[in-house]
Amino acid sequence: MALLSETDRQIVREHLAGVQQQVTLLLFTQTIGAPETAALARQVLEEVASLNELISVEEVNFVLERDRAAQYGVENIPAIVLLSNGEDTRMRFLGAPAGYEFSSLIEAVTLAGTTDSRLSPDSRSLIAANVTAPLDIQVFVTPT
Amino acid sequence: MARESVQIRASCIEAIEFMELSRKFRVTGVPKTIVNQSTEILGALPEDEFVRSVLGLPDADSSPPPS
């Protein structure tokens, strides 16, 4: 059973209309002993991918592909890494993106689908002038 | 912000699913943003304020906060 109604699918499809590059949703999970949310994460991602030809889902086994997990700095699962034309966008989701997090996921997919950060000119200037070392931003959210 | 700079990585973390992380950063309300495992930003801020807070800059309209 689909998570999204047909009306919702159409709305999300319209939101994703701006995607112009290949977006890969890398889902890090495991086959045995995976948390329940991993299955939900997979379902959400597959449903999003079904709405746009440029979006695909690739499942990576966290236990068997340790090198790849380390490459993307993944230490917990389920984890979603967004790639744009195969390159790391440095955007991550930890946990199944349900509820309010779903709209953040769609926003992130749209961002991954173009080269535009959609930030204001002021924000861009501030970042260009002040970011001289790695910045790790972790935003804690809940579905409701 | 991650899209704007290769130095920036942004993670959206489901607080209830990752209790150990939530506990580590004393997340009692969301959204809560942690920058480089130390700076804390509570709540949802407008873009300009958020970017300045993440970058450790004072607000555009106010004088620097007392240290």
Could you give a short description of this structure?
The complex is a heterodimer of chains A (144) and B (67). With 144 residues, chain A is an alpha+beta fold.
Defining key terms:
heterodimer, A: 144 residues, alpha+beta, Glutaredoxin, four-stranded mixed β-sheet, 5 helices, 5 strands, 37% helix, B: 67 residues, two-stranded antiparallel ribbon, 2 helices, 22% helix
What would the average pLDDT of chain A be, to the nearest integer?
93
Largest interface: A-B, 45 and 38 residues
Low-pLDDT ranges of chain A: none
Computed CA radius of gyration of chain B, to the nearest angstrom: 13 Å
- Summarize model confidence as the mean pLDDT of chain B: 90
Number of distinct helices of chain A: 5
Please tell me the total number of domains of chain A. Answer: 1
Biggest β-sheet of chain B: count, sense, barrel?
Answer: 2 strands, antiparallel
Q: How far apart are the first and last residues' alpha carbons of chain B, in Å?
A: 27 Å
Q: Which blocks of ≥5 consecutive residues of chain B have pLDDT under 50?
A: none
Could you spell the SSE succession of chain B in H and E letters? EHEEH
Helix content of chain A: 25-40%
The CATH class label of chain A is: Alpha Beta
